[in-house]
């Protein structure tokens, strides 16, 4: 049984990934502010299999914070075998209204934290022939209006995925998953007309599910020992028609 650290795992896609991987892994649920949700998920998973889930808090806003989280995660069960960099800030930053705080928050959560957490866990991942999964976005390659900083950070995460895959080989595999229309943003009001426009551009004609993402993560960490440095779009073909 392998040990998996998932950042931002108390809700939404992170929670779905935790539930999916818990079937045959021990799960470390990282959270920033969602303590109640994280503890509920821990109780749920431990009721299914005792001592199989734990929660750790970190703001992930500094290299030191990432190193501390990595240390505490490794102390739980003797190391981390899989890291899923899922935690992410997402909100619009129209040019002319964005400030340095927006830059620090969006680049920090989407690029800085994945790098420093991956770096801190490299000894454990290398020792255990582990893997890293970075949660990216189809808009890392095709920009989303008014989300310049977010898209730039995710584009950086694509290159980080490829660079780490090269540098950490052959002991550690690094891949990315780029969701399309899976969950509508919590922070933004999306009207029905906007949703319909988005759906009209998806060749498969529907949104995906959290399970689609979680099963892709499982595939990348469990099955293909010869896949590294790749980003898989799970988007119903939407990236063909943005």
TrEMBL record:
<dbReference type="Pfam" id="PF13561">
    <property type="entry name" value="adh_short_C2"/>
</dbReference>
<keyword id="KW-0560">Oxidoreductase</keyword>
<protein>
    <submittedName>
        <fullName>3-oxoacyl-[acyl-carrier-protein] reductase FabG</fullName>
        <ecNumber>1.1.1.100</ecNumber>
    </submittedName>
</protein>
<comment type="similarity">
    <text>Belongs to the short-chain dehydrogenases/reductases (SDR) family.</text>
</comment>
<dbReference type="InterPro" id="IPR036291">
    <property type="entry name" value="NAD(P)-bd_dom_sf"/>
</dbReference>
<dbReference type="InterPro" id="IPR020904">
    <property type="entry name" value="Sc_DH/Rdtase_CS"/>
</dbReference>
<dbReference type="GO" id="GO:0004316">
    <property type="term" value="F:3-oxoacyl-[acyl-carrier-protein] reductase (NADPH) activity"/>
</dbReference>
<dbReference type="InterPro" id="IPR002347">
    <property type="entry name" value="SDR_fam"/>
</dbReference>
């Amino acid at each position: 049984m392998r040990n998996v650290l998932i950042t931002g795992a108390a809700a939404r896609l992170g929670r779905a990934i935790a539930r999916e991987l818990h079937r045959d892994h021990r799960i470390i649920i990282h959270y920033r502010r969602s303590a109640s949700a994280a503890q509920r998920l821990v109780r749920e998973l431990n009721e299914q299999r005792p001592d199989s889930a734990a929660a750790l808090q970190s703001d992930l806003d500094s290299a030191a914070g990432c190193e501390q989280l990595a240390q505490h995660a490794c102390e739980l069960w003797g190391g981390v075998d899989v890291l899923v960099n899922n935690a992410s800030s997402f909100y619009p930053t129209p040019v002319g209204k964005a400030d340095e705080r927006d830059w620090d928050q969006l680049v920090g959560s989407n690029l800085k934290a994945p790098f420093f957490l991956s770096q801190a866990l490299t000894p454990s991942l290398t020792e255990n022939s582990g893997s890293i999964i970075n949660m990216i976005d189809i808009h890392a390659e095709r920009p989303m209006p008014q989300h310049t900083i977010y898209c730039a950070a995710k584009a950086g995460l694509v290159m980080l995925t490829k660079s780490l895959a090269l540098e950490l080989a052959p002991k550690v595999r690094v891949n990315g998953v780029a969701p399309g229309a899976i969950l509508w943003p919590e922070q933004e009001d999306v009207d029905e007309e906007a949703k319909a426009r988005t759906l009209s551009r998806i060749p498969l004609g529907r949104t995906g599910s959290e399970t689609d993402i979680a099963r892709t993560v499982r595939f990348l960490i469990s099955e293909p020992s010869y896949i590294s440095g790749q980003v898989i779009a799970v988007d119903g073909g939407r990236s063909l028609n943005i």
